[in-house]
Design a protein that fits this description.
Helices cover 35% and strands 19% of the residues. The chain is α/β, with parallel strands linked by helices. Strands 2, 3, 4, 7, 8, 11, 13, 16, 17 and 20 form a ten-stranded mixed β-sheet that branches.
Amino acid sequence: MFTPSDLKQFAQRGTPVETAELQISQFKQGFPFLPVVRAATPGDGILILEEDALNKAINRYEKALSGLKVVKFVPASGAASRMFKSLFSFEQNYNDDKPNPGALNDDPSVDQFIARIADFAFYPDLANALDGEDEMHSLIASGKYGAILRAFLMEDGLSYGSLPKGLLKFHRYAEGMRTAAEEHLVEAANYGAIKGGTALVHFTVSPEHRSRFEALIKKVKPVFEKAFGVKLEVSFSEQKPATDTIAVDMNNEPFRLDDGSLLFRPAGHGALIENLNDLDADIAFIKNIDNVVPDSLKADTFTYKKALAGVLIDAQQQVFALLNKFESEGVSSGWIEEAEALLTHTLQVEIPEAYAGLGDAEKASWLQAKLNRPIRVCGMVKNEGEPGGGPFWAKNPDGSVSLQIAESAQVDLKDSAQRAIFQASTHFNPVDLICSWKDKNGKAFDLPKYRDPMTGFISSKSQSGRELKALELPGLWNGAMSDWNTLFVEVPIITFNPVKTVNDLLRPQHQ
């Protein structure tokens, strides 16, 4: 299947030939659906923290914080171009030589953008790019909206159409405007370190934008360090070329470019499990780059981030104590019963029927393997129509049932029973995760080993007008973490304010 030139290309990318062969077989065979058993709901898989439990969890984290190495992990490599889909379409089809103010009525989102353009945090920059506010008003009055959009989107203006979300100005303050990346620094300073300590922030970025991120952080870091009384230590990484997946044509044969070389494509956010695996930390807070709010609304975010971390620490300490007890005392029926209770009641794992037929030594081995894994606590918000993976009880290959985050594409919606379970979900995951991947001895787990390789996605794309199939690795918070111990906790909807389109910045939460 592969030529000597292909093998050289594999070596240069760091991609094993066996990996490419496996990916091609996955294109041919497809991926099985995730067998969901029931939706996780409050009291059945989703923990509700009442005031006393909430305060105890926060206190637990705050007391432990000085002895922990905590990092805020922010995937920030994605381009913001999808935020401006309607603006791009309008600009391409609008003729400034024959301005037509009524054309705005054809797309209410563009109408809203123009009508409220002064309410965006980037407005002063855009006005400057157009030689001032007077020129902006003149262009609007004369119906020359294309000139405004070009100055906003294109490289000879603000270049917002090609920048990543992290570099876009999201919010206004009396002292100036803040980008999404800056808001994450503020968050880290408030829950990622004690006063006078160091808050660690790690951004995954694309190579072409890394220098701009670095320049921004260098400029603003001293300002936030002084304002919040902490040291900010910011690091960056890029998605590894070796995690890119091979593309195939519509016949599932390797897709070749005009020069005969193989085409590889970025494999989605699931590839970032490798970046997370490279970090040295006791706890990682994971959150999407666009899910930030102004300071006036951050209090609930700080509260629940600390609380989720406190829930994780409590569960982890129980696991470590029990594993240490087993190590010192050996197998006993009392230890096995205690481990079963911890696994089922705290870690939300339903033991398979076949377990009952095992001897004590086999039971102990199975229990240890289930307890001694990476752990994560995931915030869940009530579903109000936003897209996102949902919380479910799902069956694992070993017959056990545990909590999983599932996207709609992972569930067989053509099966009426599976569809009913999916539709019964009351919550979804806003990518609000607190993770730890060290064992009781402080040794890090090798995270790729806890990924379910059979939870990838196949999508249709094109290259130079030719159709192809692309493969995405198991999602970072889906299949990439499927073999982690997982807890779900309800968090308030105010902690979820994503910016998927530019006009989302006009919502009251972002003004």
